[in-house]
Amino acid sequence: MPKKPTPKPTTNSRLKLLGFNNLTKSLSFNIYDICYARSRQEQEEYIEYIDEQYNAERLTSILTEVADIIGAHVLNVAHQDYDPQGASVTMLISEGHLDGLPTPGKKKEKESVVAHLDKSHITVHTYPEIHPDAGISTFRADIDVSTCGKISPLKALNFLIKSFESDIVVMDYRVRGFTRNVRGMKHFIDHNIDSIQNFISADIKRRYQMVDVNVYQEYIYHTKMCLKELDLETYLFGEGAADLTAREAKKIRSRVDHEIQEIFYGRNIQR
């Protein structure tokens, strides 16, 4: 099987296309927040707290801001809070405002939406979780921003990282499909990128350790991030670091750090 050539990203920002730019650009996040709660009651209170902080209404507000940042028009929104915890929001979007489309919330024939939809969406699902005996609680948010046309999900990268209490962030960015120029030549990517880190702000980079795994010939970019400094005070729920003995603080710090390392590297690690 012939080896695929290394792609050469186009540098022409005024690329003339034949019809619509149907390259699909997908940015996926796994965002984790870690917490230590000593008692079972405190763990349950943390889950209730984080579940309320990121309920469907709040998530809808965040995704609406994402749509605004990337220059998209919201077509339709579906959201749901779950029992006992967790929430989901799905948002259909288009590139800018399209004449003739119904306003979200107003009933109109679904065909008019489907006919004009440029296959763009934003979704988020949340997963609060408790370790059965180590006092560790985690909150995970899975976010997908997938766009066609000129709008790019990368514009919302920094906003999403800052919108959640992100101890660990795992990101995947992929460009799918192809578009054609006016001469019929295929273009498999329409912007320069060699790492997701190119689009992360300097203030975020200073706070996080980052690792890249990229497959350039397949237009797949993967970046993992975790906070460089572990401030124990920010991980405690229901008590402060001043309430702990030096031995307790060391033990809790070790548990939190172990949880972060396992999630960051994606494997179980022996203590």
Task: Report what the structure shows.
The protein is an alpha+beta fold and 271 residues long. The protein has one domain (25-265): S-adenosylmethionine decarboxylase, CATH 3.60.90.10. The chain is built from 6 helices and 10 strands. It has helices spanning 40-53, 56-70, 110-116, 157-163, 202-207, 246-265, and strands at residues 24-36, 72-81, 87-95, 120-130, 136-148, 168-176, 179-180, 186-187, 208-215, 220-227. The strands form 2 sheets. Strands 2-3-4-5-1-6-10-9 form an 8-stranded antiparallel beta sheet. The longest helix has 20 residues, at 246-265. It is globular, with a radius of gyration of 21 Å.
Which descriptors apply to this entry?
271 residues, alpha+beta, S-adenosylmethionine decarboxylase, 8-stranded antiparallel sheet, 6 helices
